[in-house]
Amino acid sequence: MKTIRHKFKNVITVRDGIKFRSKKEAKFYDLLKIAQQGGHVLFFHRQPKFDLPGGITYSADFQVFYAHGTVHYYDVKGFKTKGYLRNKKMVEALYPVIIEER
Hints:
Layout: E1 13-15, E2 18-20, H1 23-37, E3 41-46, E4 49-52, E5 56-59, E6 62-66, E7 71-75, H2 82-94, E8 99-101
Parallel strand pairs: 7-8
Antiparallel strand pairs: 1-2, 3-6, 4-5, 6-7
């Protein structure tokens, strides 16, 4: 399989037939699966979407439902662009969520 490189040097990685935008994101997915098997995580969703003004849609990387009753949103980042920081701030202002970075 040919390796595709992007401008931020991330490498597309496949796990369980799912394409991830980076090795780091795929590793976080692996950790979530282990936590789910151990009962710490009930389940998780990939790419939860948030609608923003101006027809913009922001997608976090993961929405995680923990066994103790909390829900967390994660974005796995190697590099934080200005656009990402702006959209993250807008999501947190409009929705009752905090997006954690990994």
